[in-house]
Hints:
alpha/beta; eight-stranded mixed β-sheet; binds guanosine-5',3'-tetraphosphate
Amino acid sequence: MHFQWYPGHMTKAKRMMQENIKLIDLVIELVDARAPLASRNPDIDELGKQKSRLILLNKADLAEERWNDAWKAYFEEQGFFCVKVNSKKGGGLKSIQAVIQEACREKIERDRKRGILNRPVRAMVVGIPNVGKSTFINSLAGKAAAKTGNKPGVTKGKQWIRLNKNVELLDTPGILWPKFEDQSVGLKLAFIGSIKDEILNIEELGMEFIRFACREYPGVLAEKYGISEAEDAYVCLNGIAENRHCLVRGNELDTEKAAALLMDDFRNGRLGRLTLEYPV
Ligand code: G4P
């Protein structure tokens, strides 16, 4: 399976990120817990090298818990702060405030020595498309959070959300661009919906997913769609179309629709908690 990828429109996003990163103390990087490496853009390490770093394993509810724990340990070993979260339901969000303070302890200490007291930590949320940045900001900020508006010294037009007396969050997330040199990474990004389906062949994607699921999670598709996993991926896709009554022109099986339905089921957790990659 081959992807076409046009990084051109990401140039603007990168420029914006370079500007915004100057204003903050802490980078809150969201990754998809089902594929925490594939859904990172390693350029953020260079962009955020002077900053405190927190990685959030978002959509932790969609990934296997034992692998969530393994990934948390993996990132912590690399010197990042790391929290498992479910931005949609709010899981893990409570512990974040304390971790933010911890992650910025040096900066707070430095401020204190220079006589600057109670200057809030400034943070920005970053991540590739579809990892849950907007959902996270909305859940964390909640209804009560007031936008602080422009302040002296802050680039005109920037909006900060005051989370509490210690933390302010830039209200628009930094969009990172998916990055992959090898097709297996591209495939994981396509599975989690970070590469737009429009540029993909959805049937091929569905068949790749069937191959993955039958190999790593045998029984899941058989149980969900009543298919035989012993058959090849195309037969399985037809089986899903049959099971879900995906038809065109009255009686022909619509494998395109079946593939879209399969990916939707996976992306929304209806196939259970599945992890796409494991730490080494
Ligand atoms: P982005 O800003 O990074 O592009 O992502 P966004 O917040 O738009 O979230 C992308 C999708 O992921 C949304 O689903 C959102 O609800 C879902 N999502 C975000 N965080 C979590 C999480 O922790 N767990 C789960 N299960 N889902 C999460 P959608 O289908 O596009 O929209 P909606 O129908 O859910 O509103």
